[in-house]
Design brief:
five-stranded antiparallel β-sheet, four-stranded antiparallel β-sheet, 1 helix, about 0% helix, about 45% strand, flat
């Protein structure tokens, strides 16, 4: 496998595909190598995959932006079924993103490095495409036992790990507090427990601090 130096990691990541992803594997989505139009409901089979789920039922990739406008971002991050090529999840990528597959091809955690001061985390039920959890700076206080511990303007998620298809654990790093009396930075571990049944509406996950 080709080794990439740190300054070119994102650019090289699109070339470093493994034929089979391990449980909890992650792939960084960097700048697109070429501008190709993305189909509205399906994926062009000629586009190389970014990452394949452990049981090879799903793939994730970056569909490059069709516009050169600054607000077009890098493109659309897609998760699709390999059998039908139908898209089950799509978000616009402004900077870069990573995907973490759960065991059994049941769920994926998509880490969107949305802005210079925040990450967003989407937990997706792959069978239905349902966004079971969306975690970001606006609602992160609901995921910790002491809301004041999350009163910061910068929020980043690190070290995401699936221990099962229903349990995701990650570390949140926070910087630049809103209150002058608060510590300049803080770290907290968060565990998300999800229900066994994936329903079509409502949030059925349960966060624990």
């Amino acid at each position: 496998m080709k080794r990439c130096r740190v300054p070119t990691l994102l650019a090289c990541s699109l070339l470093m595909f493994a034929p089979r992803a391990s449980v909890g594997a992650t792939t960084a989505i960097g700048p697109p190598m070429a501008h190709r139009p993305a189909l509205p409901g399906a994926v062009d089979a000629q586009e190389p995959p970014v990452s394949t789920s452990p049981h090879r039922g799903y793939e994730a990739r970056l569909a490059p932006a069709r516009s050169t406008r600054p607000d077009a971002g890098r493109g659309d991050f897609l998760i699709f079924r390999r059998s039908s090529r139908r898209v089950v999840f799509r978000i616009r990528v402004e900077r870069s993103a990573e995907v973490f597959w759960s065991p059994g091809d049941e769920r994926a955690a998509v880490l969107d490095h949305f802005g210079s001061n925040e990450d967003r985390l989407f937990i997706v039920a792959l069978r239905t495409g349902r966004r079971e959890q969306t975690i970001g700076r606006q609602n992160f206080t609901a995921y910790v036992k002491d809301p004041e511990r999350a009163d910061y303007s910068h929020l980043y998620f690190k070290r995401l790990t699936w221990s099962s298809s229903k349990r995701l654990r990650f570390r949140a790093e926070m910087w630049a507090p809103w209150r002058a009396s608060a510590r300049p930075s803080r770290e907290v571990w968060v565990t998300i427990r999800l229900s066994t049944l994936v329903r079509r509406s409502g949030v059925h996950g349960r966060p624990v601090g």
